[in-house]
Write a structure and sequence with these properties.
The chain has 275 residues and is of the alpha/beta class. The chain has helices at 14-27, 39-48, 65-73, 115-128, 143-155, 166-180, 200-209, 235-240, 253-274, and strands at residues 6-10, 32-36, 53-57, 83-87, 107-110, 135-139, 159-163, 187-191, 220-225, 245-249. It contains 9 helices and 10 strands. The strands form 2 sheets. The chain has a 5-stranded parallel beta sheet, with helices on both faces. Strands 7-6-8-9-10 form a 5-stranded parallel beta sheet, sandwiched between helices. Residues 91-102 have low confidence and may be disordered.
Length: 275
């Protein structure tokens, strides 16, 4: 994979950080782990890196943990990163999605269960969140564009189905639902320019309105051309149609994979919280 998974541990206790670091690294040798003792250190790390998971204790020496989490959410790299708060005062592991905290804190973990249980909890979440098992539906009629995009997906070991038009994409999604009784695709990538019968916008609208797949059930990435010097990006049209995110051509491997992973994480977090 182009991107190596990173985990951020925030805890004021030297012994706790050391224990978690060693146990996680022994189980997940291929993951990068950064351990911070203060909110200041953590915020600096979050500005530099995107993390797969962030864990934090409630008590930090320089900032209230909830204020720190709010600051983390302000930075683009970790707006959607799962954040687990380790606490001895919380009665439940998973945040109620109706709670105001739901957009900031993904889950609580009772520290009374011990370090081993927390490590297992993190490992289970990472396995459930694995992008290697993701399924992508890719829609593009351009042979050149498709060759570039599929080569990037192949290089990064993503499983995908490529179709050339919106009608076949909708048929594939309907067949997938009939076979699985749910949307088994994790991300839909579609080019804006498809056929005269159905544009990328119209495909997205059909997914949202006819199939009733919302932004969490099937995240959508729109591929479009860079606007000319005298043109502006149609943000209203892009997001009004129901797109989660968009990328302009010519695409790069780093930008494409970054956006795909972000959208997969959106779907995985929703599945984790509604399981």
């Amino acid at each position: 994979m182009l991107f190596k998974k990173r985990l951020l541990i925030i805890d004021s206790s030297d012994s706790t950080r050391t224990i978690l670091f060693k146990e996680l690294l022994s189980t997940l040798p291929d993951i990068d782990i950064i351990a911070c003792a203060t909110a200041k250190e953590a915020l600096t790390a979050c500005k530099r890196f995107e993390f797969e998971i962030i864990t934090t204790g409630l008590t930090l020496p320089d900032m209230n943990s909830h204020d720190m989490i709010s600051e983390i959410r302000k930075h683009g790299k970790n707006v959607d990163t799962p954040i687990f708060v380790v606490s001895g005062d919380t009665p439940t592991h998973v945040v109620d999605v109706e709670n105001d905290d739901a957009n900031a804190i993904t889950a609580y973990f009772d520290k009374a269960e011990g370090h081993k249980a927390l490590v297992n909890f993190i490992i289970d979440f990472l396995n459930r969140d694995s992008t290697l098992n993701a399924r992508i539906l890719y829609v593009d009629q351009s042979a050149t564009s498709a060759a570039i995009t599929t080569s990037i997906l192949d290089k990064n070991n993503f499983s995908y189905t490529h179709v050339k038009d919106g009608e076949n994409a909708l048929n594939e999604l309907r067949m997938d639902f009939n076979n699985n009784q749910k949307c088994n695709y994790d991300v839909l990538i579609t080019d804006l320019t498809l056929t005269r019968n159905m544009s990328g916008f119209e495909l997205i609208q059909a997914v949202r309105n006819e199939l009733n797949y919302d932004y969490l059930t099937l995240p959508i990435l729109l591929m479009t051309v860079e606007p000319g010097d005298d043109e502006k990006t149609d943000f209203t049209g892009i997001f009004g149609a129901g797109t989660n995110d968009f990328i302009t051509k010519p695409i790069t491997e780093e930008k494409l994979i970054e956006r795909v992973i972000n959208l997969i994480n959106i779907k995985r977090q929703n599945e984790a919280l509604t399981a």
